[in-house]
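Input.
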Amino acid sequence: LLNEQKWIDRQSRMIVLSFATYNPIFDFWCSCTFLVEMPPSGVFFTKYWVQPFRPNMDETNAETSSNYFDYLRFAIVLYIFLFVFPAHIVHKTNNHKAGLWAFVNLTGICDMIIIVFFYVAFAYRWALFKLNKKTLDVVNEAQTRFYDFYDLSQ
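Output.
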C-alpha cells in the first residue's frame, strides 16, 4: 500500500509509525512507536516502543477526589509532626527518657514510618503527575501539528 501511494521506493531506508491511543475504560493513554529500518544489505530491522501513561490526575471526578484525600492525609501527617511529636517528647522528657530515646518505642517508630512513607509517596505522585502537561493542552496542540506523546509517557 505504501509503495502504491509512492510513500516509499527503492531508496527508502526507514519507516516510522507513531501514534497515541486512549482507553476510556481504564483512563489510560498509550504512546506507540514502530520503526522498520531497511539498510542496503536488504535485512529488515524492527523496533517498537509501547508505553502506557496517564498524563494528568485531575481529569475525572474520582481522580479529583483522590487528590482531596491526599491533601487530607497530608494534614493528618502534618498534625502528627507538629503536635503529636512535641507532646510525645515532653511526655518522655518527664519520664526521664529525653532525646532520641523518645522515639525508640512502638509509637514513635510507627509515627516516623507513617511520616516518611507519606512524604515519599506524596512527593513522587506530585512530581509524576503535576509536572506533566494537561491532556487537553496536549490534544489541542496535536490538532495544529504533529505531536509525539512518547515524551509524556517517560
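The radius of gyration is 26 Å.
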